[in-house]
Amino acid sequence: MDDARRRVPRTDAVLADPRLAGALERLGRATVKSAVAAAQQRCRDATISPADVVPAVLAALPARATGLRPVINATGVLLHTNLGRAPLSDAARDAILTAAGTVDVELDLATGRRARRGRSALTALAGAICDAEAVHVVNNNAAALVLAATALAADREIVISRGELVEIGDGFRLPDLLTSTGARLREVGTTNRTGRADYLEAIGPRTAMVLKVHPSNFVVSGFTSTVPVSELAGIGVPVVVDVGSGLLAPHAAIPDEPDVASALRAGADLVTASGDKLLGGPQAGLIAGRADLVEALRRHPLARALRVDKLTLAALEATLTGPRTPTAQALQATTASLLQRATALAARLTDRGIDAHAVPTRAAVGGGGAPGVQLASGGVSVPPDLADPLLAGDPAVLGRLTDGRCVLDLFAVPSTGDDALGEAVLAAANRSAGLGRA
Ligand SMILES: *Cc1c(COP(=O)(O)O)cnc(C)c1O
Description:
Layout: H1 2-7, H2 11-15, H3 21-27, H4 29-44, H5 53-60, E1 71-73, H6 90-100, E2 107-108, E3 113-114, H7 119-128, E4 134-138, H8 141-153, E5 157-161, E6 167-169, E7 172-173, H9 174-179, E8 184-188, H10 196-202, E9 207-213, H11 229-232, E10 239-244, H12 260-265, E11 270-274, E12 285-289, H13 291-299, H14 301-305, H15 310-321, H16 326-332, H17 335-351, E13 357-363, E14 375-382, H18 387-392, E15 396-398, E16 400-402, E17 405-409, H19 418-437
Parallel strand pairs: 1-15, 5-8, 5-9, 9-10, 10-11
Antiparallel strand pairs: 2-3, 4-12, 6-7, 11-12, 13-14, 14-17, 16-17
Helix pairs in contact: 3-4, 4-5, 6-15, 7-15, 17-19
The protein binds pyridoxal-5'-phosphate (PLP).
Pyridoxal-5'-phosphate (PLP) is lined by residues 140-142, 168, 213-214, 216, 242, 244, 274, 285, 368.
């Protein structure tokens, strides 16, 4: 025992080992040091030999300086809120790296003077929404709604249909969000039916705005009626429309999904939307519409607390001006191409001894977009006992358990990601076989 302890390599000696130099640079001294302490303890316990301390440290160290682990989204849900919604384009990732340093986010390099924060991103957004007189960006769509309610309707009333009092997820409800600003809600109509007359009747001296919220995560069918934005336009108070998904223009694959341009053309005074849903960009709240209203929001003290950082501005600009986003590409993929990818991947896995076959699947937009819409897709069916090992991998793979099988839907997997998915399945199968033997 004493002998073993004496042979435990000293901390400074281990930390000075050249094999740990990269890890020290990547992860920092504190993280490496705690892994060293754990390995020394194992050495003291004689479960590893002194020569194995450095390899044990390397094996125990995390791959990166964040606890976030990459996940291959094989759920068939394109915008998975638990997976961070839209994956960014390479252009947006690159823009984030640029913005990570010191940049001219609020400085005019031509004059050396302070300039409008994030002006190139705002110019890109204005260019992408030609129907808007002005635009602004905040932290997310919820922030956009809070800012609109605070700046336009504090101590006054927001007229809203009872069919549009939406819970957006994780227990957060838009009505609570809106009333937290001091605005009061004047609910009109019923859950299933609201007419123009309901709005007209409710509008009075205390009304600050009419709010239309897209029911983005549920469908009401049967005996229903809602009032289109065009019938509310010019109703006497600002009409604010939360379109939800951030689709800038109509999309053929999801024809019923509202978009920013159509809402503005229909007469909305202000439109709000998310940046990380169908727009395919970073988390952000997009605000577009009448110049005086946008300015009122932008100038409100609360706007400072809701402003986005330089990383978001950079990624948003690249999303708007750069190549098609992974989200747009997924929406455009044909069912035939998805099934073809599934067949090829299944064949490769079968060759390596895995019980895999291609299956037709039903994918969804998810994340508050195109509720109830099913999109024909393709996937690879593998044994269900691979589901847990797939989650344990790096990257992890999240599939879907269907009919006693684990189905890996390719809808949300970029077409360039099939190799990585195949490797992850093989690695999971290896781990699973290893566990089986143990
Ligand atoms: C998703 C969604 C929100 C919330 O947007 P965040 O960007 O997540 O804050 C609000 N309204 C609608 C209609 C939505 O679909």
